Amino acid sequence: MAVRIRLSRFGRKKQPYYRIVVQNSEARRDGKFLDIVGTYNPMTEPNELNIQQDKLQGWIDQGAEPTTTVRSLIARGVGKAVAD
User: How many domains does the chain have?
Assistant: First the structure.
């Protein structure tokens, strides 16, 4: 079972809001997930990005691979990470 860290879409039409989730790579985008490691809101100015750094690092250490989009969000939001 390959595990990926990817975005799961929420919100209304033309008002997206995303959760950063750990999910089986074969699961649907908004389907069953293993853990929520953060949120991303592209509709605010500036974009709001909240990442639970300890959870994220724990999953990466276990072999979960972030998607290209999540990898770029992590790189862009390293200074904004929150510890909940």
Answer: 1
